[in-house]
Specification:
Oligomer: single chain
Shape: rod-shaped
Distance between the termini: 44 Å
Order of helices and strands: HHHH
Strand content: under 5%
Helix content: 55-70%
Length: 112
């Protein structure tokens, strides 16, 4: 009794973009649902506000102390706050952009 060998079925090429879109939608929903800003960010927000109002990169105007704990994030967030005006929404938007860039780099590596 001979067994029948069936060729393996190759998945339809239109399925991959649909799966990718579904995964990206799930990621976007997760990012929006779990978005939050910790208390350390408000120290950065006040420091950015002082900088934009000409008082320098400091928490209290009279003290020359670096109060933020993440210089790169501070430097990325400052121009966004200067343009947008709202530090809370600016931080959330910039975080979303950073997440999208990271996901794009991962997808680019996987598909190449």
């Amino acid at each position: 009794m001979a067994t029948e060998i069936r060729p393996r079925r190759v998945p339809d090429q239109t399925l991959a973009p649909i799966c990718l879109a579904a995964l990206l939608a799930l990621l976007a929903a997760t990012v929006v649902r779990t978005a939050w800003v910790g208390d350390d960010a408000f120290i950065t927000f006040r420091t950015i506000d002082n900088l934009l109002h000409g008082h320098g990169m400091r928490w209290n105007v009279a003290e020359r102390v670096q109060s933020f704990t993440h210089p790169l994030w501070f430097l990325l967030l400052t121009p966004v706050v200067a343009v947008w005006g709202n530090p809370y929404l600016s931080a959330l938007a910039l975080s979303g952009v950073a997440t999208a860039i990271a996901v794009g780099l991962v997808i680019g590596r996987v598909w190449s």
